[in-house]
Specification:
The chain has a single domain, classed as Divalent-metal-dependent TIM barrel enzymes (TIM Barrel), CATH 3.20.20.150. About 45% of the residues lie in helices and about 15% in strands. By secondary structure, it is α/β, with parallel strands linked by helices. It contains nine helices and ten strands. The radius of gyration is 17 Å and the shape is globular. The strands form two sheets. An eight-stranded parallel beta barrel has the order 1-2-3-4-5-6-7-10, surrounded by six helices. The protein has a two-stranded antiparallel sheet with strand order 8-9. The N and C termini lie close together (about 10 Å). The protein has helices at about 20-30, 55-65, 85-100, 115-130, 150-160, 170-175, 185-190, 220-230, 250-270; strands spanning about 10, 35-40, 70-75, 105, 135-140, 165-170, 195-200, 205, 210, 240.
Length: about 270
Amino acid sequence: MAAKSDLVIGATTRPYNKLTYQEAFERIATAGYADVAVFANAGRVPVSSASTAAEVAAVRKAAENAGVAPSMLLARTRLGDGLAVAVEDYRRLVDNAAALGVRWLLELGTGNEEHYHDYVQLMCQAVEWAQERDIQITMKPHGGISLTAENLLETHRRVGHDAFGICFDPGNIIYYTLGKRRPEADVGSVAGAVTTFIVKDCVVEEGKADVMVTAGDGLVDFPSVLGQLLAVGFGGPLYVECVSSVEPVQVDRDLAHTLGYVRGVLASLQR
């Protein structure tokens, strides 16, 4: 079982998505986090395949100035433009991710059944390129090709590479199935392939699911889910993606609270 001190707990910039990435980095650091996952801020992901070297350097410098490490980046694919274009575009994304200094590219899969085959082919080609640059790709449940534990495992099997793993997002298991599937039941089947973890809760009310919930306040049994992962040697990292608040000052509070909550859960599991 991994020691608690070995588990990185970072935060995504999503809770501050209306702010600039510079402001998000600073607030995440103030909340007590040392690692950050770069998502969209002020309407765009600040590092993409189209980013210039200067733009990537500016994001990296902003993280350094705030005292956080940008260790994960949200990825996107261009499968609608054909496989060849998608591969070249993804390689540029990987190169920019390496320049940013991240260790993980977070994949969302695809919800378009017509792209399922090409998505796997894209990952098969991209993962070698990524590994050569010390980056791993990790795919989380997000509907479509990554809807359920079975879908995640099948895609993982088809890509078949050590640098392509599963990001377990318990809130999304509930969200995309409207509670018909539960992460506590599903995590055991994928645990051996899980390389990263998203701290996300979810509630379902009147047939509608909502992940804008602070961890511990929703349906996810985090001690059960994390306990099953730790039992097979999962060693992080974990990234907090959502909280219930929207206003920055309240998000500050919720992020700091969530860090303490996750640390408490991990500590209780490793006594």
